[in-house]
Amino acid sequence: MKISPETSHLLEEVEVFSHQRLHHSGDLALVFETAKLHHQEQELDSLSFLSKFLTKTFAVMNRVGEDGEGYDKLSREFTDNLERAMSLLRTIVNKAPDDVRGRFAKDYFAISPDALHRVMQLLSDLSWYKNWRIDHRSVS
Fold first, then answer.
1. What are the angstrom distances between the C-alpha of 136 and each of 17, 37, 118, 122, 140?
2. pTM attached to this predicted model
């Protein structure tokens, strides 16, 4: 899939904003490009919002531990919102070319610890995008 100059520029801006902390910038570019081409900006915005929530919640869950106060509630909210985020990601990626869909199915949508780890990294990347959007909006 060819990435447009606009998407490449956006990705560069998010990469700089994140201080080069993106894990899957190439896949993030594919998500950006697919969402743009198929007018799924609202889905991308919702996905980035959920990504920010999920990465923050996951960090809190790790900090408090399974025996910590409120962990069960956080875990339920995390699971519910992860399902929503995965649904949005699938909605976007389902419009991508076959090779991209196949790779995402293997790398992100498989039921395995490695796929979950990659999903969490991609969600982290999307949370950087959300933070960039918030920062960018306040400057405009």
1. 10, 22, 27, 21, 6
2. 0.93
